[in-house]
Write a structure and sequence with these properties.
Order of helices and strands: EHEHHHEHHEHEHEHHH
Strand order of the largest sheet: 3-2-4-1-5-6
Structural class: alpha/beta
Distance between the termini: 14 Å
Bound molecules: adenosine-5'-diphosphate, magnesium ion
CATH superfamily: P-loop containing nucleotide triphosphate hydrolases
Number of helices: 11
Length: 246
């Protein structure tokens, strides 16, 4: 099982949507994909139609065995996770990684969504990962966010998970016609501080339409929208970069 954690400390920058894209694409390709929602907002859970009896906090606490908490290939997030960060104040950040060992033979890939923060919950999500993906808008402010997240990645690499690799920064809400977006992308590519995905994700209302209708945004009726095409190509890039072959 290859584990990918999606994180940035900024909210509303398409973290959850990026997780959804990877999960939905890989499932369409026939892979077994486990989704884990570590966010108390529970957006990934609700989008995937999760109505689980237990959540990620219950698993970490040991209230339930991980196999029992998984319903429809999802470990749920939600309001109960408000206490998860506190849990990690006194418990090992490797708790999720350790629990995942029990189910690693059942899945090809595990995708972990995180809250918009750099806190102990996010660090635990990074501890469990082989790869990290950071979605970011192409702006100066966002760059500071990426650099701060990279510092967190470095500290996790040094302490608990030296195999952790940055798979890339994904440029989201990208506008071709904005010179400043192009300049930002050029700057990032030249500075060479982190890998950037070739695919840049444009904005389309179709993403929200699909979510509102509880549809898979890779269903045929949405596939003509720019953002949907871009998310598809991005997920394909991920499939290749993590060396999946089937
Ligand atoms: N490419 C896109 N085009 C249009 N809307 C998008 C796109 N990506 C994400 N969104 C919307 O932006 C909002 C924030 O995205 P979300 O993935 O929930 O961000 P985060 O998890 O970082 O808070 C959501 O309403 C989502 O549907
Ligand atoms: Mg989110």
């Amino acid at each position: 099982m290859i584990t990918i954690t999606c994180c940035t400390q900024k909210g509303g920058v398409s973290k959850t949507t990026t997780c959804e894209a990877i999960i939905l694409y890989l499932r369409k390709q026939g892979y077994k994909v486990l989704a884990i929602d570590l966010d108390l907002q529970g957006n990934l859970t609700s989008y995937l139609g999760g109505d689980n009896k237990y959540d990620a906090f219950d698993v970490c606490l040991g209230k339930v065995k991980i196999e029992k908490a998984i319903e429809n290939d999802l470990i749920a997030g939600g309001a109960n996770l408000a206490y998860l960060n506190q849990f990690f104040e006194t418990n090992k950040l490797t708790a999720i990684k350790t629990k995942l060992k029990t189910v690693e033979k059942l899945y090809d890939v595990c995708v972990i969504d995180t809250p918009p923060a750099i806190n102990r919950t996010v660090l635990a999500g990074l501890c469990a990962a082989d790869y990290v993906i950071m979605p970011s808008e192409p702006t100066r402010d966002a760059l500071d966010g990426i650099l701060q997240t990279l510092e967190a990645v470095k500290s996790v690499k040094k302490s608990a998970n030296n195999g952790l690799e940055v798979l890339g920064v994904l440029m989201v809400k990208y506008k071709e016609r904005y010179t400043v977006h192009k300049q930002f992308l050029n700057y990032c590519t030249k500075a060479n501080k982190f890998p950037v995905f070739k695919t840049k994700v444009r904005e389309s209302q179709a993403i929200n339409n699909a979510k509102t209708n509880n549809d898979n945004f890779f269903d045929k009726q949405y596939m003509k929208a720019n953002a949907v095409i871009d998310y598809w190509n991005f997920a394909k890039e991920v499939e290749k970069k993590i060396g999946l072959k089937k």
